[in-house]
Amino acid sequence: MADGAVFLAVDLGAGSGRIIAGLMLGGRLSLEEVYRFENEPFEEGGNLYWDFEKLWAGVVEGLRLSVVRYGAESICSIGVDTWGVDYGFIDKNGKLLGKIRHYRDPRTKNMYEDLEKRVSKDVIFEKTGIQFMNINTLPQMRAEVKNPDSLLPLADQFLMVPDLINLSLTGQAFCERTNASTTQFYNPIKKDWSRTLFEALALPLDVAPKFVSPGTDLGIVKASIRDQTGLSSETRVVTVGAHDTASAVAAVPAKIGTKFAYLSSGTWSLLGVELENPIITSLARSYNFTNEVGVFDTIRLLKNINGLWVVQECRRVWKERGNDWSYRELAAMATGAERLQSFIDPDDTRFAGRCNMPLVIQDYCRETGQDVPEGAAEILRLVTDSLAMKIRFVLERLEEVIGYRIEVLHIIGGGGQNDQLNKSIASSINRPVVVGPYEATAAGNVMMQKVALDGLRSLGEGRDLIRESFQTRHFEPAHPDDWDTAYVRFRNLLNL
C-alpha cells in the first residue's frame, strides 16, 4: 500500500488499553499512540471481573479519535490483541451474557485437584502442551461447570476477549488460534479443540467456537460502528496474533538462523523460544513449560514468570501513601541501591495477587533468614535482581528442554524501558541482551495486518521490516563472578 497508509492496533492489556496507529512512510513503519485508557478490574461479591462495557467504550473512542487524526480514507484496517485465557459467553444473537471473570478471580482455587479426579495431569499436558497455572481457561471452565449459577447453560458459545471485540466490530464470531492455544484445551498437534478435555470438563463441545488463523481478513467494520466512529466502508478488520504475546514475539527483530530466546517483559515476564513444532515431553512438563501457537504456524515454547506485577503492586501501595513515583523514577531508585543483597522467588504464590507488596516482600525475607530491605530503593533492587535470577533459572531449564545453548536474549515490550532490569538480566545470564522494540505487541499486530492486506509473505520479511523500522539497544554482562556466587543463594531459596 502507498505511503501514508494507516493500520490501527487495538492493544488491550491487563492494566490499560491503547489504540496505536502504524504508519508506513518511506518503506518503514512508525507507531503513534492515539488513545490510552485504563482497564481496571472490579470486585463484586468476592469475585473479580473485567469491565467489558468500559473496555469496549475505550476502543470505540480510540477509533473515533484515529479518524479525527488521520482521516477515514487513510485507515486501511484494524487488528485486535489482548491478554490470554479470559472469555465471555454469547447467546445465539451474539450478545454477551453477563460479566467476564478476571483470570485472578479466586474461583479457580483447587480446580486442578478437582480435575485430577476426572483426567490426569499427564493427559492434560499430552493433549495441550500447556503449563499448569490457575489462571488458565481450563480451571476457569471447570469452575464454571461446577457453579450452579453459571451462564453456561444459556450460552451458544464462548469467545476469548479479542474475539469478542472482533465480534463487536464485524459481527463475525471466530476464535483466533494464538489465543485459543492459551486455554489449555487446544491441541497444538491436531490443531483443534481436545475432545478428551471437553469431556473431562463435562463441557459441551458445541459451545466451542470455530477457528481462524492470524492474518485473516474478517471483512469491513459494521455500519453501526462506522456511524459511531466515522470509519469508512473500506476499513477492514484483520485477525492478528490475538494473544498479545504472539503479536509481541512476531516483532522480535532477530535474524534468521540466530539461536535466540525472547523475553516479553511486562506485568508478566514470558521467556521462551520459537519452534516449528511443540515439545510435549516429560522434561518439558516437569519444568512446566508451555507450547502456545504463534503467527505463521509457529510454536512459542515458553514459561510465564511473574514479572513487573510485583513492582506495579509496590507502586500502587506507595502511591496510596502519597508517593506517586513514575516507573522511570522507580528504575532509577533501584539503580542507586546495592545489588545482590536479598531475593524473593517472584513466582511464590504470596506475590501473585493484590496485596501490600512491600510488606509481603519484607516478611518473606524475614521468614527466609535474609536481610530485610528497609526503603523503597532496596525493595526495588531486590525485586529487579530476583527477577533477573529467575530468568536465568528458567533459561537454563529451557536450554535443557530444547537441547541447545541460547546465544542472545531479545527483550521486547514495555518492561524493556527499565534499564536496571535489562542490566541485571544481562549480568545474571552472562549473555548479550538486545532490547526493543518497546511497542513490540503493536508492531507485531500491524505486521500481521500487512500480511493480510499488503503482501508481506513470511515471518522473515516481517522481521526485516521491524528491524529496519525500530532502533534497538544492547546490554553486556557485568560482574559475572558476583552474579554466579549470588545465584547459589538464589537457588537455595528455591529449595533445589
Characterise the protein shown here.
There is one protein chain. This protein has 496 residues and is of the alpha+beta class. It has 2 domains: 6-238, ATPase, nucleotide binding domain (Nucleotidyltransferase, domain 5), CATH 3.30.420.40; 253-436 and 472-496, ATPase, nucleotide binding domain (Nucleotidyltransferase, domain 5), CATH 3.30.420.40. Helices cover 39% and strands 21% of the residues. It is built from 18 helices and 23 strands. The protein has a 7-stranded mixed beta sheet with strand order 19-20-18-17-21-22-23, sandwiched between helices. A 6-stranded mixed beta sheet has the order 3-2-1-6-16-15, with helices on both faces. It has a 3-stranded antiparallel beta sheet with strand order 4-5-9, with no helix packed on it. The longest helix is centred in the C-terminal third of the chain and has 27 residues, at 376-402. The protein is globular.
Which descriptors would you attach to this protein?
7-stranded mixed beta sheet, 21% strand, alpha+beta, 496 residues, 6-stranded mixed beta sheet, 2 domains, Nucleotidyltransferase, domain 5, 23 strands
